[in-house]
Amino acid sequence: MAFKAVERGNKFTDNYRVYIEGPSGACSLWHDIPLYSDKENNIFNMVVEIPRWSNAKMEMSTKGKLNYIKQDEKKGKLRFVGNVFPHHGYIWNYGAFPQTWEDPKHKDEHTGAMGDNDPLDVCEIGDTVHPIGSVIQVKVLGVMAMLDEGETDWKVLVIDVNDPLANEMNDVEDIERLKPGLLKATYEWFVLYKIPDGKPKNSFAFNGEAKNKAFALSVISQTSEQWRKLVMSETDSGGLNGASVSVEASPFLITQEEANREVESSEAHGPSSDPPSSLNKWHYIS
To answer: CA-CA 20 to 30 A from 109: which of 22, 24, 41, 254?
Structure first.
């Protein structure tokens, strides 16, 4: 199933949106893109929110209709991630698994913390830099358990099935074997990335250890079931937007025409604004 990103508004402004189109038209990035591309072989669809090496904190809008990608804001300002030496921006293609949800009312048995109320975060470690809104097919290799301000925030480690190393990478130990230093850099990046914004270091369960593929698949299965309960209104949505064009039994189902109108009513795509010059700075943190 082919999906195409549709940009609207102006990049690096608060009106910027990236919607998605499926075979029949506009659809939800969160609810209409299947989690599995090939369930029998555990091949998943990943939505790329942030291309590798970039700094703008783009994310799926869980409360916006059709769950478009937008730039996150804090205190009225657009968020950009600082460069913590020796890294520049995000060090992988960063995004989310559709049709998953970390329920904020569910205490995880491993972390002892509630879910962060978002889809599962995904770090794609292949060589290609994928544009915002790309829907790519990935193999799961492992998972890390970040604790973000007291909430469970899983980071699933994956590789694009079309990457030259994909056939050789099947579990978490293959990351260190074929990309030595990447697991350590990933842990370090997540621990330090908020410090330039004046926030404390993040912490991890399991002392920062990346758990294996089987563990990661169990996390995906659990959060997929939590998502199902959300879109079937079997749990309180807390203001999250469940609108979709394909989840037939969901009370939030909308027509294709309504979805198309939602995209058409947004501001037309125009020139990008300039990102802040501060993104040229490296932050040195001991």
So the answer is: 41
Question: For 91-129, how does the pLDDT look when each residue is reduced to its tens digit (9 = 90+)?
Answer: 999 999 999 999 999 999 999 999 999 999 999 999 999
- What ranges make up the beta strands (E) of 132-238? 135-148, 151-160, 203-204
Cis amide bond preceding 86, omega within 30: yes
Q: Among 150, 149, 134, 140, which residue's Cα sits nearest to residue 120?
A: 140
**Global pTM value:** 0.97
> Please, are residues 155 and 190 in contact by the beta-carbon 8 Å criterion?
yes
Q: Which residue has the tokens 């102006």?
A: 10
Residues assigned a catalytic role: 90
- What DSSP string runs through 49-85? EE-TT--B-EEE-SSSGGG-EEE-EETTEE-B--EET
Q: Which tokens hold the place of 271?
A: 């020139």
C-alpha separations of 249 from 105, 150, 162 in Å: 23, 34, 34
The span from the first CA to the last CA of the chain, in angstroms, equals 46
